[in-house]
């Protein structure tokens, strides 16, 4: 009979959690860097401590018994919380890098070019960028801050609107000289940023041209297509055509004269850029410093918008 006031050994609980997750003693042993025999011994000792059978041993597999199914959820949650607590403490160590994830285009066109300003102002904070469109887990993936372009804020995390984004036609100066009306755009090579086709409604040339008073057909779909926004922008800078670009991603190219907006009409997009971190983490000194810096940096995009005719994105 087990002593209800005494918890089983942690090694036995850890062995059960891994085996119940994999439903394989061999895979669990491999994860924990022990032999299958050692793992089987730990689970046997746990069963003896609890006075119940936790697994049915089959020929080539195992399955949880009713007591095993009752134990598994709470134990899995407990180990997750322990891992998360340890990671939270590790992130608080002095000198630990601040890990920021954002999409590849936003990292290349907005974050990275401004990094030197943050580094000069805050040399005590080391930044680490993870450029990815994958939705990462703050604890599992060791992420401190995420900057995401999405139509909906995330209520499971601290979430603050950074950029109310819009799109506008842009081209290299030599190409822009040929564009005086919306109809002129159809005589140029259209550059398409397919990385945001998942948004609804979609942000396409056809939508912008209709908002400009035209009724485009198949010609709005021709041109060159890019799976990454920064590649499409680079093509526009080189004079390859005209792009319907997100303002945040072309701000520096516009300021430097590499791109020109030949027509003033822009469309607000269904997606916006949000700053995200774990709830409560926004008050941690490193994250609060980075958030304050971002608030200052994005102000120029809002100011830039006052120069254009920005219209709601059509439903």
TrEMBL record:
**The keyword Transcription appears for this protein:** yes
* Record-level Gene Ontology MF annotations: DNA-binding transcription factor activity; sequence-specific DNA binding
Which residues are in the HTH lysR-type domain? Answer: 8-65
Keyword annotations for this protein, in alphabetical order, are:
DNA-binding, Transcription, Transcription regulation
Q: Which residues form a coiled coil?
A: none
- Specify the domain of life of the species encoding this protein: Bacteria
UniProt xrefs under InterPro entries: LysR-type_TF_proteobact-type, LysR_HTH_N, LysR_subst-bd, WH-like_DNA-bd_sf, WH_DNA-bd_sf
Task: Kindly give the PANTHER family that the UniProt entry links to this protein.
Answer: GLYCINE CLEAVAGE SYSTEM TRANSCRIPTIONAL ACTIVATOR, HTH-TYPE TRANSCRIPTIONAL REGULATOR
**NCBIfam families attached to this UniProt entry:** PRK11139.1 (NF008352)
- Its recorded name reads Transcriptional regulator GcvA
| The organism's taxonomic lineage, starting at the top | Bacteria, Pseudomonadati, Pseudomonadota, Alphaproteobacteria, Rhodobacterales
């Amino acid at each position: 009979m087990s002593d209800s006031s005494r918890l089983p050994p942690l090694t036995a609980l850890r062995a059960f959690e891994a085996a119940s997750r994999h439903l394989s003693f061999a895979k669990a042993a491999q994860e924990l860097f022990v032999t299958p025999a050692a793992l089987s011994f730990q689970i046997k000792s746990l069963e003896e401590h609890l006075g119940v059978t936790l697994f049915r041993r089959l020929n080539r597999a195992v399955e949880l018994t009713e007591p095993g199914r009752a134990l598994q959820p709470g134990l899995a949650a407990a180990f997750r919380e322990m891992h998360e607590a340890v990671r939270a403490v590790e992130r608080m160590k002095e000198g630990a890098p601040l890990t920021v994830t954002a999409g590849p285009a936003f990292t290349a066109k907005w974050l990275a070019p401004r990094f030197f300003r943050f580094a000069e102002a805050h040399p005590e904070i080391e930044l680490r960028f993870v450029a990815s469109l994958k939705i990462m887990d703050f604890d599992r993936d060791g992420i401190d801050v995420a900057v995401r372009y999405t139509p909906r804020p995330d209520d499971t995390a601290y979430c603050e609107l950074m950029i109310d984004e819009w799109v506008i036609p842009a081209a290299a100066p030599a190409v822009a000289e040929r564009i005086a009306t919306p109809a002129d755009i159809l005589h140029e090579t259209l550059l398409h940023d397919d990385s945001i086709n998942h948004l609804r409604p979609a942000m396409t040339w056809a939508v912008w041209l209709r908002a400009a008073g035209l009724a485009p057909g198949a010609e709005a779909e021709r041109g060159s297509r890019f799976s990454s926004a920064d590649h499409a922008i680079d093509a526009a800078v080189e004079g390859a055509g005209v792009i319907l670009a997100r303002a945040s991603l072309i701000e520096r190219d516009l300021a430097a004269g590499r791109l020109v907006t030949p027509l003033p009409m822009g469309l607000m997009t269904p997606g916006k850029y949000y700053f995200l971190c774990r709830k409560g983490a926004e008050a941690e000194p490193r994250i609060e410093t980075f958030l304050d810096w971002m608030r200052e940096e994005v102000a120029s995009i809002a100011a830039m918008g006052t120069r254009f005719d920005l219209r709601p994105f059509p439903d």
